[in-house]
Task: inverse folding
């Protein structure tokens, strides 16, 4: 838990967000500035700043992010969707707590960031 990290605070429940899913390891909430009709962020509860900080011990939760992304997109009625992760400032990452973007509802190939 990094007190200065907004996504840690959302995971801890001390910062509000429109949550779509939560368990002990993964939280999903709507992006505050949606780039598509459905735009959710899938985060691990564990603070990892970027994919570059991930290690073998994180393998299971990283895989789980993908399965939860599928689950929330399907539950929202979207069998077709895009999943994206930005790694590093140069790739458009703004929030340094690892997250998957799940985008659906518009047939475009626009990327986030
Ligand atoms: P990044 O560019 O780091 O991959 O994406 C960060 C995303 O987090 C952006 O799409 C931005 O709109 C979203 N975001 C930033 N701050 C907040 C916040 O406080 N709450 C929510 N729900 N989303 C946020
Ligand atoms: Zn964090």
Result:
């Amino acid at each position: 838990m990094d007190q200065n990290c907004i996504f840690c605070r959302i995971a801890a429940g001390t910062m509000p967000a429109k949550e779509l899913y939560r368990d002990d390891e993964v939280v999903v909430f709507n992006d505050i500035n949606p780039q598509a009709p459905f735009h959710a962020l899938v985060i691990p509860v564990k603070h990892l700043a970027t994919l570059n900080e991930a290690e073998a011990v994180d393998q299971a939760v990283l895989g789980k992010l993908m399965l939860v992304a599928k689950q929330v997109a399907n539950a929202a009625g979207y069998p077709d969707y895009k999943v994206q992760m930005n790694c590093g400032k140069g790739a458009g990452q703004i929030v340094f707590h690892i997250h998957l973007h799940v985008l659906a509802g518009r047939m475009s190939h626009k990327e986030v960031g």
Notes: The radius of gyration is 13 Å.
